[in-house]
Amino acid sequence: MAEFDFDKLIPRMGNRSAFRQVFADVGFVHSWRAVRAPLYYENEDPWYAEAADYAAAVFRYSFEAPVARLISEHELAVRALAVGEANYEKNRAVFNGFLEGIQVQPEGPAGDRMLQSMWDFLALAAAHQIDVDTGRKRSFFFPFC
What we know:
This protein has helices spanning 6-13, 16-36, 45-62, 66-72, 74-101, 109-127, 132-137. It has 145 residues and is mostly helical. The protein has one domain (6-137). Helix 2 (16-36) runs antiparallel to helix 3 (45-62), helix 2 crosses helix 6 (109-127) and helix 5 (74-101) packs antiparallel against helix 6. It is globular, with a radius of gyration of 14 Å.
């Protein structure tokens, strides 16, 4: 996938279908991580509930006006994306292996969409200042799922 483009995020999050798709994809990844435990802690009792609660909080706070908040908190989102990109590079092989393990080709359209949704989720969480440190602890890369 190409480098994250913040300017493309704004119109994408203005589309309610695209916005909802982010959370469908996040839920999909969470559910498979709870089963496969690619980082070895996801099948521990509190992980899935905490990850689901975190995603629900991001959705709840983002739902009304995701674009306005992304614009007003642009710097927070861009800083989080920079940290996320660095951490993603360190964990790319694990993430790609996880996707392959659930029959999603990392370089294919489904893999691209999963990764795009993770980036979008990160930007939304950061822009809404939703306990990013907790998200980081639950992630392949900061604070993806």
